[in-house]
């Protein structure tokens, strides 16, 4: 049965003398190889040189802190319920007195894990987040040797207090507009021991 | 008595309120209610979300009522004609009511344990506006422990009085009520008296918002990550018929069963609610019916058959042929 028109009939006829020399074939092949020396290179020298990426590139997640360094995440679970790959899990805990500088709200994420092997980097978690806590960044998830190492906990996800990650480019217009409204708790910052 | 609600006529006995008559017809005409609770006497009349327009008072006196009326407190008359969702003014007025209810509400749903099964969330989503216009400081209270099992967030309270009526009617000897008046009104236990009645835990279930929450469940799980199953046990104090919320093999909380109007079917005792948090304590009957529009139905497939039937109906209406019936 003929499936396509691209099938070729193979013959086992004897090769001619020039064909048996292989030289014309080798020269033809070398010419193709040589011509690539003068063409534009398809690769970059990766760690030293980086390809340009889009401003809204979706790479490794970050859990943001607010201006005073308190974690913004309240473990509301909206990212986990929005996640189509079910990559996010979390456990919440209640903030104790005196921890106001560490956690922004009275509830916080005791553990927060993203399985980077399950994650499809769709960005629905950052869209669902009501607290501007989770964002995708332009960082690339590192390679690992073990599968369990791809389950990122809070140690890898929460940004360092002295090494903030800028996500202002990912802020949507609606959010930027919302942040201008005065009197909303979301837009307030802890000063001393009160939200102001 | 014959009454027409949103163009649908129904025969109801004397003494029925408009809200009850509407509920008899079905959820498509029933107005939402935040404070009315059919199981509690004298409840209703506070929140005003159930307002309807009476375009014809009765067959004897066909004049319309001049203002929207609270349907939970207005009894039907023979030949009464009521408009609810079909009346634009009522929809608009209800939007205003929701705005008033949300005026002092902190909107801390990401923190609140009630999120996902909160009637105020549903109400705001269905009838409210997307944005707040309120620019002033919202009233703020400290979080209070009512006994070692109940937490009171007065910030979230909408003063529906359901918990007060429950304490009055279900438990003997009320120890909590509403103190102060107007804007300063708040639920109080008379100098934070502990409610230590066997049925005091029911105030958690009747609360339409997250003002009264279970401390044994506090911040344990979001409700949509737990799986509700109907279960029962032999209880000497109550019927023992409850809804058990599972996370894996763990019982994260126990509540009373609720009907389609989000009202408790049978009140349960504190011992069932707080002290039996092992799966072996319960005889599990099966998954609880959850409305498929609820976030709790997320990733639960009890209603799979219903979904399939709906899908087939839609496909048929659009002229699709089901995949397995294709030639």
Task: Produce a short descriptive summary.
The complex is a heterodimer of chains A (196) and B (327). Chain A is an alpha+beta fold.
Supply the key terms:
heterodimer; A: 196 residues; alpha+beta; Alpha-Beta Plaits; 3-stranded antiparallel sheet; two-stranded antiparallel sheet; 6 helices; 7 strands; 19% helix; B: 327 residues; Ubiquitin-like (UB roll); 5-stranded mixed sheet; 14 strands; globular
Your description of this structure?
The complex is a heterodimer of chains A (196) and B (327). Chain A is an alpha+beta fold and 196 residues long. Chain A has a domain at 61-195: Alpha-Beta Plaits (2-Layer Sandwich). Chain A contains six helices and seven strands; from the N terminus they run H-H-E-H-E-E-H-E-E-H-H-E-E. Chain A starts with 16 loop residues before the first helix and ends with a strand. Chain B has 327 residues and is an alpha+beta fold. Among the domains of chain B are: 2-100, Ubiquitin-like (UB roll) (Roll); 106-211, Alpha-Beta Plaits, CATH 3.30.70.20. Chain B contains seven helices and 14 strands. Chain B has helices spanning 18-25, 88-101, 119-127, 162-169, 202-206, 270-274, 304-318, and strands at residues 2-5, 8-11, 51-56, 69-70, 80-83, 144-146, 150-152, 177-179, 186-188, 212-214, 227-232, 241-247, 250-256, 283-287. In chain B, a hairpin with a 6-residue loop joins strand 8 (177-179) and strand 9. In chain B, helix 2 crosses helix 3 (119-127). The model of chain B has no long low-confidence stretch (mean pLDDT 86). The chains are: A alpha+beta (196), B alpha+beta (327). At the A-B interface, helix 3 and strand 2 of A face loops of B.
